Amino acid sequence: MKIGILGTGMVGETIGGALIARGHDVMMGSRSAGNEKAVAWAAKAGPRASQGTFGDVGAFAELAFNCTSGDGSLAAATAAGPGLRGKILVDVTNPLDFSKGRPPTLFFRGDDSLGEQIQRALPDVRVVKALNTINARLMVEPTKLAGGAHDLFIAGNDGAAKAAVIELLRTFGWSSFIDLGDISGARATEHYMPLWLRLYGTFQSPEFSIKIVR
Amino acid sequence: MKIGILGTGMVGETIGGALIARGHDVMMGSRSAGNEKAVAWAAKAGPRASQGTFGDVGAFAELAFNCTSGDGSLAAATAAGPGLRGKILVDVTNPLDFSKGRPPTLFFRGDDSLGEQIQRALPDVRVVKALNTINARLMVEPTKLAGGAHDLFIAGNDGAAKAAVIELLRTFGWSSFIDLGDISGARATEHYMPLWLRLYGTFQSPEFSIKIVR
Description:
By secondary structure, chain A is α/β, with parallel strands linked by helices. Chain A has nine helices and eleven strands.
């Protein structure tokens, strides 16, 4: 499958690498063509890897992951948008505001989410919120923890798109999914960030996940 | 032990009832003496139960639970404050803003919490944030789920106060605690509410809790 990655940070690199290892062709995108990190990644990741602008990635990909930072995620998705029409965009972003230092605050107060903003801006793109509640390494290797016995939250307006994302994530080892319904479910997982960040500080490790006990 | 409950809602009634069942004397407080719900609760709960104003509760209690709604929690704590000096206030509240309908939004965007506001307003009171991540029934009967194998988050500036609260909550059946550090940890659990509310809607039941998998 031709898969796009928006963003050149650790999340994009990690997901991109895992996809290449599973035989996909991956293009990493950034604001400008020839981005130093994207070029270095593509060179290292081998012949199935390439790089380009966000717009290039939108045109190339059958499915894309939005792995940009919260303050750039809507712009990145919008730049990739024309090529992504009718396609799936897995939105991995979190609304973290680092403008006042650390720990970051949020852009919202339970009243909106990046997932919803992107879906509103790109009504023809099938936005699926997922993976934003865990560390990059665990995103692609969930079985590192308790054999994978923890939960991944997923939200989006398009049931078939969610099913396709679940199928892809199963190849990473995910087995337990909680479908939070339409894209407004992104509000739920994006506001989990302050707890995630606090637990990260408490444990001095990002290698943890949630299991919902019922 | 003489324990106070601020608030006459379901959370206060449930915690109050569980404390009476364990032999404590409990006073339920509200804005005005003779509140209809508090009087009815005290009459039903038996000779160990009483009711009064928030101020009465502060004076009576050795330890109190703040079980008011988010928009009234700071005022309730402040009204009880003079009597609570040097004592423990377990803050169970959540910053839910119902002014724009349902689902509620939050009063904060990762930049503050009710627990912190109350601690700042009452520097001589030992505020401990706890129990605000679960349904009232599970607060006092955690073993209903997975034999109690799920986590309770706790935060506060005073280590001895946290230890005393943990000791009390063990009598409800809690066995697994995650100490999130000082009272700013309240920010973490209070912002979990959008996820809790969404899961409630998804499961059509409030009987669930979190286990952190590491």
